[in-house]
Amino acid sequence: MDLPQPLAQWFAARGWRPRRHQLDMLREGRAGRHALLVATTGAGKTLAGFLPTLAELIEAPGEGLHTLYVSPLKALAVDIQRNLVAPIDEMGLSLRVETRTGDTPSDRKARQRVKPPQILLTTPESLSLLLSYPDSVTMFEGLRTIVVDEVHAFATGKRGDLLSLCMARLQRISPGLRRVALSATVADTDGYRAWLAPDGDIDQVAMVQGEAGADPDIAILLPEDRVPWTGHSGRYAAEQVMAEIETHKTSIIFCNTRSLAELIFQDLWKVNTMSLPIGVHHGSLALEARRKVEGAMASGRLRALVATASLDLGVDWGDVDCVIQMGAPKGSSRLLQRIGRANHRLDESSEAILVPGNRFEYLEARAALDAVEAGELDPDLFRPGALDVLAQHVMAMACAAPFEAAALLDEVRSALPYSALTEETFERVLGFIRDGGYSLKAYDRFKRLTQEADGLWRVSHPRFITQHRLNAGIIVEATMLNVRFKNGRNLGKVEEGFAAQLSPGDTFFFAGLSCEVQKIDTEDLIVRASSKPARIPTYGGSRMPLSTNLADRVRRFLADPSEWPRFPKDVSDWLEFQAKRSALPRPGQLLVETFPREGRHYMVAYSFEGWNAHQSLGMLITRRMEAQGLKPLGFVANDYALAVYGIDKITDPAALFSPDILEHEFVDWVQQSHLLKRAFREVAVIGGLVERQHPGKRKTGRQVTFSTDLIYDVLRKYEPTHLLLQAAWDDARARMTDVGRLAGLLDRAAETMLHVDLDRVTPLAVPVLTLIGREKVSTGSADDALLIEAEALVADAMRID
């Protein structure tokens, strides 16, 4: 496959050769075929995606929009522009490459619609807005290619639903449009090919596999060759991590939550005796702060950057030579994505160091290394498209031009997530946009669409077009609630996601107090100090779920003693003592241990379904125990186990794990807590029922919550089958509670449960039991007390009578 001369000369001037997969992408482009490229980080994926575009524009220069590049991150679009403009300038090509995101100035946005560049870099949300203008047909009628980068990051979620609908519209405007997707970590390549293809026709999409790169060099850091019993962050290893920073040119230290990133940054700063320049980067920082840090990294002024998932994707800093993961990675695909930030070159090994927080996390880190070595990636879970996203898209299409329902339904069905959409459901979506549903149809503000006598659907009033463009988008900001006493004394703030799980009467630790929930308002969580023990552990920040692949590998480690010699001695001793004292679960088996300790009775279930599922299960089981008179006191959970404790002994654990808990306690919990209300707020905003912005002003999160709560209460009472309540239930079940994994666990529990009743705590139970009391601790003597308690637990667990 011959390159046009300017491209061939550009490669030669650098002493480079086009890689096989880059030429394969050029071949597919010239044949007009859609393509999915899966290639490791540093393999030149982005250049491969743009190569057919550059070749075509060199061989047949022209004005007008030729190629759209869609990225999940604004920062990535800016980074790609920087990396693409340089070679274009060096080749002397007269091409315009521009970005269009929420940060783009309004005058440039207006000019781009009239005189677009040849290459436009954007996000799904900005593309959807472009398609809402009447002149979108003129803008996109000559579009030849759309390139979807980091497709794994959003194809299976709501932003992927929106993008698939946008691609369906683009294909209708420009039938010859070619679709391209790029990724480094895709397990289900056929699933992504079907998602990318018009009408889900997998045979239309060529599969291009990138050249293999050098194997990554991954190590597990073990300070003093020991692994802690408890913890989940690796904070104990701050000095050793700082030593790694000192011996490398530039390091990125990944943390799984924003709060942990701040803690690790502070820990490293305390031991930074050489005063090396280090920074922190996460999504809660202001845009200016993130840009400043990114600029410092790009120019080589930082020696280390502590970061979260905000840097998982694509940003290319060639001087990074070491990636350190604090705590377990939670999935092999995520680990590979993060490792790829080191070197960003195909022919050099990426160096990575894992710092496990406890003994289970050591096993998880070892499982992740084995999975990477075996080339095993985490599964990709595709699901039907969300109805709130569809409602937003239908409104965008109406803003662009009146439409005929049957034609739009046909177009929507050509997007894979909506390929099974029934005519009845589509009519319900139209009805919702027409008048909000029969409970809301008396209010003009919900009458956004009108069907005229000619059968076409039109926007009812121009103000609804302005309203849509101001409010369209998929990402809904989380709000914080004030925790306060009825007399007004404020204790602080908690994330609404935590507050949504609570009901009046629940108790939790906050600011060193046991707080009992009295009432949950729009803005406030009203509590009173309680002498009752706090049943629910507090928790801040979102948690990444443990992947099923790594969970299965950890289970196999436990069941296979031939693996144990690979582990540090304290880890293998831990497993050997567990086998002697109790049992180790076989793959597929649910081990449940019960034992007394210091006047309480404990039940520990080793289910390996991840923190989210265990947290939900803890809520449900303690409710069931309450109903059965078992006097529960509380529960704690980690990714590997759930521990419930109370006053009375649990003699029949199987009765607590029956599948009907999802029919009774689950429904009651979701409806009584604010989980469903929280989910409804998100779908109401995405579906366009409630505005976040009016011309000239933006509603606060609290004002949005107040509006959606009022509507929610009306619909729950008068129209429980409303389209958005259905969408909210889908969200609450799938996303907020991990109910899929929970249901699988409960379905298997009866036939796979191994109940072992013991006289005292076991070695396997120690990591989860040490979480009890952790939430109410700040500093000082309380930390010492917890340490003494942990040591006492360990002594009891590891004693052989």
Automatic annotation (TrEMBL):
Q: Which Gene3D superfamilies match?
A: P-loop containing nucleotide triphosphate hydrolases
Segments forming domain Helicase ATP-binding: 26-196
Looking up CDD domains in the UniProt record yields: SF2_C_LHR
Q: Does the keyword DNA repair apply?
A: yes
Q: Which Pfam families match?
A: DEAD, DEAD_assoc, Helicase_C, WHD_Lhr
Entry's Gene Ontology molecular function annotations = ligase activity
Its keywords, alphabetically, are: ATP-binding, DNA damage, DNA repair, DNA-binding, Helicase, Hydrolase, Isomerase, Ligase, Nucleotide-binding
Q: Which residues form the Helicase C-terminal domain?
A: 237-380
State the family it belongs to.
Belongs to the Lhr helicase family. Lhr-Core subfamily.
Show the PANTHER family listed in the entry.
Answer: ATP-DEPENDENT HELICASE LHR-RELATED-RELATED, LARGE ATP-DEPENDENT HELICASE-RELATED PROTEIN
Q: What is this protein called?
A: Ligase-associated DNA damage response DEXH box helicase
Look up and give the organism this protein is from.
Sphingomonas kyungheensis
